Amino acid sequence: MxxxxxxxxxxxxxxxxVLGKRTDGFHEISSIMQTISLADHIEVMPARELSLECDLSxxxxxxxxxxxxxxxxxxxLNIRDGAHIRITKEIPLAAGLGGGSSNAVVALKLLxxxxxxxxxxxxxxxxxxxxxxxxxxxxxxxxAIVQGRGERVRQIPNNKSSFFVVVVPELxxxxxxxxxxxxxxxxxxxxxGLSRKLxxxxxxxxxxxxxxxxxxxxxxxxxxxxxxxxxxxxxxxVGREEIHLTGSGPSLFSRVSSRDSGRAIQLLLxxxxxxxxxxxxxxxxNCSLE
Length: 290
Description:
Layout: E1 4-13, E2 15-21, E3 27-47, E4 50-54, H1 65-76, E5 82-88, H2 99-115, H3 121-129, H4 135-138, E6 143-148, E7 152-155, E8 163-167, H5 176-182, H6 193-203, E9 214-215, H7 218-224, H8 226-237, E10 244-245, E11 252-256, H9 259-273, E12 277-281, E13 288-289
Parallel strand pairs: 2-9, 4-5
Antiparallel strand pairs: 1-3, 1-13, 2-3, 3-5, 3-6, 6-7, 8-11, 8-12, 10-11
Helix pairs in contact: 1-2, 7-8
């Protein structure tokens, strides 16, 4: 039995600017996104029917984005073969790290190979955009500027490695992303200028200055979610001055100079503040075949 497997990387939003609300009800965004080394593990293998297995029971069902994507691909291409998808999770759920979206895209890439079907990148991009706004970015990962509702992705060449400490506060909110967008006010909207400036700086080989990092949801969560405020203050207490939200939260990240520096901060967060965290590095692309 042939088993194909790959890593499925998480992401950070270095910027997440919301420009306004569109006529279709979605919001227009401009975001610099970056895949990171924190990753789930996905396997696909031949089977008579299409099925999914996940080590987290709460997403071990047909509502899992990877299963929804697999069913859509199978139906769209009229594929009769089945497959068994196995997901081993490391990326926290509903954390603003894009784990579910990444899983869905990597599962599709593996199924393309398993079923030996030809799908153009354009068609695959259209298909994944039907499932979720984050998915088109994960077709390539790396560093990219993402615009529209998430369907317009422009890759940014970036050979520089960056290290981050990521803290994931607890936040149990049903339909979290929808709820967070509903809290935005006109004063939270920006022009997209910070994302454009950061894109230009990265393209020219420059550094990533913290003053260009921005997230439209950060002040909302800091002001309304005690667990996010607690984690933010824990990061401040261990000497982090620049702390940023990713996605619509609740995860926070801070850039560090090296993996060793990150691990020292990770230990302080754990032993002095009871905060679990990850030390991660920027990853150049998504779907690392093994």
